Amino acid sequence: MFQFFLRKLRNERGFTLIELLIVVAIIAILAAILIPNFLRARAQSQVAATKGNLKNIATALESYFVDNAAYPQPPLGNTNLLPSYARALPPDPCSGTVFGTSPGYTYAVPSNPATDYTLRTNWTVAGVGAACFAAASPPNGNNIQYTPGGGLQTTP
User: Structural domain tally of the chain?
Assistant: First the structure.
């Protein structure tokens, strides 16, 4: 009886080619479904980080305005905004550029510095930050801006 099992084990040495191809096909189908979802989730998390960064910078700008009765002139890195109102200016998570440089965040003050300001992202459809551009406001994809009167909004 023991010899029967030994002979049976020797004859079955491994998987057939068909079995291996089926397993590889299943893995490929799962990867094709999951990889786009992971990429979209990553872009959405970068957009959420961008919104948080813009709100934090806006809070620092408002604090500066309360103390000085005017908004600081660009670039923000050369003003008294650092270190009194913010520890550092955050880089854009989508493009990786430092604050105030293209294609990252931009800061603009109108001709009258006591009125308003605009914080904005500069992502492009096919360039730097393209995944974030698409995830910002599906289906048409927009950049994000912050103004004191309007808050966070997408730009056309």
Answer: 1
